[in-house]
Amino acid sequence: MSIFESLESQVRSYCRGWPTVFDRATGSHLYSEDGREYLDFFAGAGALNYGHNNPVLKAALLEYLGRDGVTHALDMTTVAKRDFLETFQDTILRPRELDYKVMFPGPAGANAVEAALKLVRKVTGRESIINFTNAFHGMTLGALSVTGNSLKRGGAGIPLVHATPMPYDNYFDGQTPDFLFFEKLLQDSGSGLNEPAAVIVETVQGEGGINVARMEWLQGLAELCQRHDILLIVDDVQMGCGRTGPFFSFEAAGITPDVVCLSKSIGGYGLPLALTLIRRDLDIWEPGEHNGTFRGVNPAFVTGTTALREYWQDDKLEKSTLAKGETIGRALKEIVEAHPSVPMQPKGRGLARGLAFDTGDLAGSVCSQAFERGLLIETSGPDGEVAKLMPALTVTDDEVEEGLRLVAESVAAAVG
Q1: Could you name the domain of life of the organism this protein comes from (predicted)?
Q2: Domain interval for residue 233
């Protein structure tokens, strides 16, 4: 481990909670170099919805590389990009009657968010963005400006401006005022609220603590945006690609955002890829106005296309995700009931689940105990107070059962 301590930056984080050197991975399991097996309920922070080294995706990738398929092409047209766009249109957009243009802004979720923020300001001529408490949208300056976490915001080193936070659903001790107060601010010339270009929201705040917005809250937000000519951006970087069940996390609310940000598992294999989906009439970019060297990683197009064809031609994965999510939800409730003297709260939707504790120390202890037992889970929330479970969507029923047993043991050990 000495090379990591002596040469790698102090900014590293996940490796501090999981102090081992990983060597191999397959499905829902990681293996350290000394051969120990770990059950992965982290899934690359949502970048591995189809598991590690998924054999179907791997076969497509190896075949593409074996025939010397194009790897790097900036935004040039390639066979791999064409296949991806056609498959995404036929498998995802058309069945949902979504008429979006697809922008490849760069390799990561923060790139998708930055492009979205830049575009809505260009379209509306306004500067202000409405964001929400405990939101997380990325580590670049624009994305940080609409992120709530003070530690991450503090790393910017400069004032983060042109964004106004509003309370997320259930922010005030389980309650959120209806949107009348927001509308009052928009209508009152004395409120001091700059006319916003857009609202950016996560339907489930993953890094913010597995905070789940109610469907009626999301619907109310979409209606307010429509009434006041405010564009609606849904950040589906972590919760998209089936994490909550449907491909898009906003589908259950029956809303249609103006802009959608996707990354993480859209590349299928853990390869970098990000999309900014834009309502067709909003696509007013000039050629090259927003660019980047890694706007389309062609091997990610290949694995992303294969994932769409393999898992999204029907609703089998969606139903499986919802069923497994309910199983985990029930198990977390049972864990809470088994420790009535310890304040705990089960949270989540689909296969984004968590146990909220009073302190980050307790949640951190649960995750440490899990690691000792061979299970990888992380903390989330503003104070790290939530033990977060996000297994691959392809996790088996037996693996879910094993993981939940280890979670129960870890909680029992942590709370004494």
Answers
A1: Bacteria
A2: 59-311
Pair of tokens at residue 244:
């909550």
Domain boundary, last residue among 283, 311, 339:
311
pLDDT confidence of residue 187? 87
Averaged over 66-85, what is the pLDDT? 97
- At residue 212, the pLDDT reads 97
Shared domain check, 152 and 111: yes
Q: Which among 377, 388, 385, 293 is positioned nearest to 349, based on CA atoms?
A: 388
67 & 90 share domain: yes
pLDDT tens column, 346-362: 999 999 999 999 999 99
Q: 163 and 207 share a domain?
A: yes
Token pair of 252, please? 């259950």
Give every CB contact of residue 161 below 8 A, 6+ residues apart in sequence: 145
Sign of torsion over alpha carbons 261, 262, 264, 267:
negative
Q: Which of residues 270, 295, 311 is at a domain's end?
A: 311
331 confidence band (pLDDT: 50, 70, 90): very high
Within 167-256, strands assigned E span 196-201, 204-205, 211-212, 231-235
What is the per-residue pLDDT for 176? 62
Predicted pLDDT at 250: 98
CA-based max dimension of the chain: 65
Residue 246 and residue 118 share a domain:
yes
Same domain (yes/no): 271, 333: no
Residue in 270, 241, 346 with CA at minimum distance from that of residue 43: 270
Is the domain of 15 the same as that of 137? no
Check whether 178 has a pLDDT greater than 70. no
